[in-house]
Amino acid sequence: MMMARKQDVRIPTYNISVVGLSGTEKEKGQCGIGKSCLCNRFVRPSADDFHLDHTSVLSTSDFGGRVVNNDHFLYWGEVSRSLEDCVECKMHIVEQTEFIDDQTFQPHRSTALQPYIKRAAATKLASAEKLMYFCTDQLGLEQDFEQKQMPDGKLLVDGFLLGIDVSRGMNRNFDDQLKFVSNLYNQLAKTKKPIVVVLTKCDEGVERYIRDAHTFALSKKNLQVVETSARSNVNVDLAFSTLVQLIDKSRGKTKIIPYFEALKQQSQQIATAKDKYEWLVSRIVKNHNENWLNVSRKMQASPEYQDYVYLEGTQKAKKLFLQHIHRLKHEHIERRRKLYLAALPLAFEALIPNLDEVDHLSCIKAKKLLETKPEFLKWFVVLEETPWDATSHIDNMENERIPFDLMDTVPAEQLYETHLEKLRNERKRAEMRKAFKENLETSPFITPGKPWEEARSFIMNEDFYQWLEESVYMDIYGKHQKQIIDRAKEEFQELLLEYSELFYELELDAKPSKEKMGVIQDVLGEEQRFKALQKLQAERDALILKHIHFVYHPTKETCPSCPACVDAKIEHLISSRFIRPSDRNQKNSLSDPNIDRINLVILGKDGLARELANEIRALCTNDDKYVIDGKMYELSLRPIEGNVRLPVNSFQTPTFQPHGCLCLYNSKESLSYVVESIEKSRESTLGRRDNHLVHLPLTLILVNKRGDTSGETLHSLIQQGQQIASKLQCVFLDPASAGIGYGRNINEKQISQVLKGLLDSKRNLNLVSSTASIKDLADVDLRIVMCLMCGDPFSADDILSPVLQSQTCKSSHCGSSNSVLLELPIGLHKKRIELSVLSYHSSFSIRKSRLVHGYIVFYSAKRKASLAMLRAFLCEVQDIIPIQLVALTDGAIDVLDNDLSREQLTEGEEIAQEIDGRFTSIPCSQPQHKLEIFHPFFKDVVEKKNIIEATHMYDNVAEACSTTEEVFNSPRAGSPLCNSNMQDSEEDVEPPSYHLFREDATLPSLSKDHSKFSMELEGNDGLSFIMSNFESKLNNKVPPPVKPKPPVHFEITKDLSYLDQGHREGQRKSVSSSPWLPQDGFDPSDYAEPIDAVVKPRNEEENIYSVPHDSTQGKIITIRNINKAQSNGSGNGSDSEMDTSSLERGRKVSAVSKPVLYRTRCTRLGRFASYRTSFSVGSDDELGPIRKKEEDQASQGYKGDNAVIPYETDEDPRRRNILRSLRRNTKKPKPKPRPSITKATWESNYFGVPLTTVVTPEKPIPIFIERCIEYIEATGLSTEGIYRVSGNKSEMESLQRQFDQDHNLDLAEKDFTVNTVAGAMKSFFSELPDPLVPYSMQIDLVEAHKINDREQKLHALKEVLKKFPKENHEVFKYVISHLNKVSHNNKVNLMTSENLSICFWPTLMRPDFSSMDALTATRSYQTIIELFIQQCPFFFYNRPISEPPGAAPGSPSAVAPTVPFLTSTPAPSQPSPPQSPPPTPQSPMQPLLSSQLQAEHTL
To answer: pTM for this one?
Structure first.
């Protein structure tokens, strides 16, 4: 048994013969039944080894070859297979066929001459050395194929596969085939060998044939049928394995699978293999330029490749590879195409951007046009071969130019059409923008400052919305507004200059009174250029304040023409023409041309001065030189810590003239020392002419107090330092200042800034290094001032060129940058003339206080402002000084054609005649005049030289000898520059420009509210006593009398001694900005208030100087100015004051009579002179309500209104009544101090919340709305433009903040303007989360408004009104009732119900303007509100509908009430509306004031 089992291990071998229909074409048809393909697929199943063509027609030689071997059967070889039970077996496959001679087409003769049926049933086959068959190509080329012989040259057949072709064979009858098969089967059955019927070519099988074949098999006993397809490799192995199982009875029966089921399994296997192979190809092949040879070599070892090639063959694998390559190439081309098409619009924009050039061209013509463009080859490339995607250009990645043949494609044509459409749309949009701009320029509704929301409905139409977005129009509108606003501001500035006489006659000061501001508003109010800025009141008022600042503080920086100020141009011209003597005499100029010297006093006790001096020296170079802005300066420090009365501690020595002083303190004692030392230093120079220490620039610095870092002490020291700095009018630097840490060490950046400011101040004061000697100044015979108007349409170069090019022109010895010396023959002798060329605003300061022998005044004949400034200047010039008027024209033709030029020339001549001056005109086209034209004027100057000098000496001596206080309380001596040293803004660190003349400086008096300041410093040890004593001494100190020299012995050299000192025009200017700590509170009544819209809070101790800031619209920068008495407090420094004090001087010096001013001789001068005497010297606005009250109580002998200023006792009673009516009520209680709350940190719990949260059933009206309406109806019903004129935004926010903190706020006490309260009330409704008129009700209101019948319309509106939420209804009723009352005063306030509805409907309804529908409905909204206002009694108080007389039916006015239903005395039968405040009758002051003003103008 064991041996038998071991023998059973041997692999069984079976010999299988495949038989079927064979023979000639007549018998089998044109093709065989597929026996060879079946054997081929079974023996060599790989797709590459499978061959479809196996011919049976052979030549004699092929038939006799070793493969056929003269036999009619083929040996296919040996096959090893594992059957279903996993048992391996071997099979030898033999195919029985019949070979046909290719010559005779008859079967070849072989050794066995039996017919095919007999031969095919043979079970014993023998053929010596017969080779295995592969394919037809093997025949005759046996050596090229594997040569494997049939084993032993013989085989014993174990079973038969009987093949039946079920396809539609050519020239073959299937029934005949079945007959043949039946006969063949009968012959095979005789062998007793197993037989399996194989249906071949089932992939092309005919259903009937298959059915007949199965019928045939069923007719035979136990005959199994397998459906196969050699081509599709379906059930081939199954056929052979089925036969093997029949041969070996021990094996189980094989399950025969139907063809279509087996085909499905095979297809799934092929599909899976294909997917894996395609994935492999896509992973390996990334470039469309790859080839099959390289790729197949890479994939050779991949199982995905092997499986697919086994199933489908190499050719199909290659085909899939080529498809992938084609896809990659297509994708690459499409990417390039997209890039080209994306670049094509850019090419069109670059080459054909002009629509006119291509508007009517087709794409073909446009293509020809493109070729003519110079930059054509930059964008396109012309290929020799086309189309571009079939050439190698697709792989030329470096060339990004567009193939020109792409233009022939449809996408390119579409892009061209798109480009045309884009150009047309752009043109249309440009046309819309242009039309919109033209609409803006021509529309009368577009005025400066009008918001877009108001202007939109007037200028927008559907075309505008269709072509452009609203943001574009808003941008255009914003730019247009900027242009017209800038133009309006320029024109308004020119208007202010044209009224220069008014501003100078009003003697405007650091803080102009409300009276004077009212006069300015009244005078300018009728001017169109004034009205043009109606909607920009804040900016307009800021311009007025800025101009007032220029009048009061005229410098190059504040000049309206800055940076083209005449003074700057003249300085540049003269400096470029000459090298200043001071530059040549500069110390060490040969070694270091940039060197300069700064002398600095450091004042501070207890070692503070020495310590800071050491720290500054540490910042210097080894030779005590300091670098500022890249230049080297010699720094000389003088620390002072002791008694300044001692020579060793004196500010000034024979070798040290200070340019500035740093005052240090760290305690109350050290601050007292600083104050005391400044007092002593100034007091020591009271009687001397070299009293420039009075104007010495000071900087007060708080440094660290060692051992004491208490916040309370620091805050106290800062407050005291600020007060002292304000009183001393100097810069204050504290630890909060930028750039300084809290400690003694001072920041290098800050000290550089301070030194730079001192350097600039020193230079502007003409204290640079060397000073002209008395002898040099005495050599000058005449001093002439040439005045030019800034901004005139002529060049200063042309006017000065004859002077500068003159051979007699030399540099001035006095070191001034605006003057030259001329030597001209006048009469029989040559005269040395110092000619100073200045702007008018720089010349105002020298009209009385300087020795000037004559003025040459230029003006432009075509500019009103130029002649106006000339008139204002001549008003205050003494009538003994010769004047030369020079009119600049554009030529004789322009004078004849231009009415303005002709009028101004005539007026100039008349002025010259009335003042006995000279007049000449110079054409600007021929500016190269000669100095000879001024010779007659120079002769007049020489003739009047002595009397001019004597008069000047008389004035100076009279001032020096006078013992009255007025001399010392008039620092300006007729100059408007008394306090011209204050900063222009908080950021301004540049000093003002000063003029070349030096004045006899008198000590400026401090403010009269000394007691108040002393009380504020109460408790600060001896500080208050020192300061009070210091101020009283400054105000009462009188210099010793100076005996005047007789006029007959007058010498010019003695009169010029004052020029040894530096020029001291006005006070000094702060050298750096310093922030003040926030105050504990502010008083709105103390605002700088030329108008109510521009305000800034301030301390009650300070005088606020409001200066418009150039960088922002409407922003006001405040400057603290303590010298109030210099402005209008104790002495205005005006000419009228000088006239008053001249009585006293007349008693002291009567040798020379005082000359009069030109204003008294010329009727064309001083046309606003009446305003000069119309105002008190110190107005209540300037003193403030508290200060005013104190002075009223302190004054003796004056009661009531006349107690304001003593000078008013001599005034005309009517004028005094006018003043009284214009003044503010100063008896209002001062508001409580309130902490400052910035907008960024203020979050309201009252404003911007739902209406239901601020009302209750007991109080259905918000308390804020009730307070505002009560205030407006009490004070503002007669205010013109109420609710139309905007209030100041900052004041409205301040009102809301204060009310948010205190709901019991008294608006009357706070003195808010009516417009501010009205604006705050509107803002309350604007900030509600939902509008007062609910959106849901607005739709119903509009629908009701569409009803044509008026009465039905009103009743429908009333029904909608009843649907309002209760809270909204009550508030709406209250507001409409108020507006009804306002409209009844429309004759006074000019606010009709229509005007009020225009102002209020956006606030009450807040529609969405983003759609055209909302815009078209705006008229409906406005008319609805107008109806509510007009018919208020009907809607809310059940009154009948009002019928206005003469009104057209259906018009808005047709429903206006005929009489007010809310009057001061309503009829008993007509109940007044609840919650409505009582009306207030119009103030009787208005008509009285108007009549008084009219009478005044008549006088």
So the answer is: 0.46
Please say whether the beta carbons of 1434 and 1442 come within 8 A: yes
CA 805 → CA 574, 800, 822, 887, 927, distances in Å? 11, 8, 11, 22, 13
CB–CB of 18/96 below 8 Å? yes
The DSSP annotation for 1214-1253 comes to HHHHHHHHHS--TTSPPPPP-----TTT---SSTTS-GGG
Q: What count of other Cβ atoms lies within 10 Å of the Cβ of residue 1267?
A: 23
Cα distances from 784 to residues 797, 813, 830, 974, in angstroms, run: 19, 15, 15, 20
How far is residue 867 CA from its own chain's centroid? 41
Sign of CA dihedral 800, 803, 806, 810: negative
Q: What is 1076-1099 written as a DSSP string?
A: PPPPS---GGGS--SSTTS-----
- Are 537 and 530 in contact by the 8 Å Cβ rule? The answer is no
> Is residue 947 scored above 60 in pLDDT?
yes
Q: With contact defined as beta carbons under 8 Å apart, do 944 and 1201 qualify?
A: no
Q: Are 350 and 370 in contact (CB under 8 A)?
A: no
Torsion angle defined by CA atoms of residues 317, 322, 323 and 328, in that order, rounded to the nearest 10 degrees: 130
Instruction: Please give the pLDDT value at position 19.
Output: 94
Q: What does the alpha-carbon distance between residue 1109 and residue 859 come to, in Å, rounded to a whole number? A: 29
Report residue 1060's pLDDT band, with 50, 70 and 90 as the boundaries: very low
User: Does 1096 or 500 have the greater pLDDT score?
Assistant: 500
DSSP class of residue 1348 equals S
Q: Are strands 597-603 and 660-665 parallel, antiparallel or unpaired?
A: parallel
Residue 95 confidence class, pLDDT cut points 50, 70, 90: very high
Question: Measuring CA to CA, how many Å separate 138 from each of 49, 129, 149, 150?
Answer: 13, 16, 14, 16
CA-to-CA distance for 1057 and 723, rounded, in angstroms? 37
The two structure tokens encoding residue 1274: 């009490």
Give the integer Cα–Cα distance in Å for 832 and 779: 7
Between CA 673 and CA 660 the distance in angstroms is 18
Alpha helices in 769-880 (DSSP H): 774-778, 796-804, 840-843, 864-875
Structure tokens at 1009: 């509210």
Q: Using the CB atoms, write b or e for 1076-1088: b if 16+ within 10 Å.
A: beebeebbbbbbb
The whole-number pLDDT of residue 958 equals 56
- Report the C-alpha gap between 968 and 687 in whole angstroms: 11
Per the CB < 8 A criterion, the answer to whether 463 and 432 are in contact is yes
Strand 810-811 relative to strand 819-826, pairing: antiparallel
| 1496: number of Cβ within 10 Å | 15
Q: How far is CA 538 from the centre of its chain?
A: 22
Tokens of 634: 């010699």
Q: What pLDDT band is residue 734 in, cutting at 50, 70 and 90? A: low
Q: What secondary structure letter does DSSP report for 229?
A: B
pLDDT the model gives residue 956: 64
945 has pLDDT over 60: yes
Give the bridge partners for 79, in sequence order.
Answer: 91
What pLDDT, in 10s, does the model give residues 896-941?
677 888 888 999 999 998 888 999 988 876 655 577 888 899 889 9
Give per-residue pLDDT as tens, 1422-1476: 899 999 999 999 999 989 988 754 444 344 444 333 334 433 333 333 333 434 3
